[in-house]
Amino acid sequence: MIDDTQDDQWLFRRLPSIRRSIATVGDITPEGIPYLVPEIQLLYKANGLRPRDEADFRQTLPVLRWEQRTWLREALLQVHPQHPWLDLLMDC
User: Domains in the chain: how many in total?
Assistant: First the structure.
C-alpha cells in the first residue's frame, strides 16, 4: 500500500493527487510494532464496503483525532464523493 511514492511523498495509487509526507503514513507502537496510520488504511478499505471494512470504520472512528478525520474526509470527497462514511465524518 505504501509502495507508490515520489520523492518524500506517499501517493494514493487510486488517485495520486491524494498524497502525504512519507514520514506521516506510519507509526510505531510502544512495543516497537510498525503500523499504517488508520486514516490511510480506512481510505483503502472505503473502496469495498465489505462488512469487515464497515466494522473497522465504526470501531476506529471514535478514536480518530480531528486531524485524522479531516484528512480521511477530504480524501474520500476526492475519490468517493458519495461515500456513506462522509456523513459520519461531518462532525470534523
Answer: 1
pTM check: above 0.70? yes
Angle between helices 66-79 and 38-45 (to 10 degrees): 30
Q: Is beta strand 5-6 parallel, antiparallel or unpaired with respect to 34-36?
A: unpaired
* Within-domain flag for 83: yes
Tell me the pLDDT band of 1, cut-offs 50, 70 and 90.
low
Print burial letters for 43-78: b (CB count within 10 Å at least 16), e (below 16).
bebbeeeeeebeeebeebbeebeeebbebbbebbee
Tell me if 48 is assigned to some domain: yes
User: Quick one: cell of 1?
Assistant: 500500500
Domain assignment of residue 90, yes or no: yes
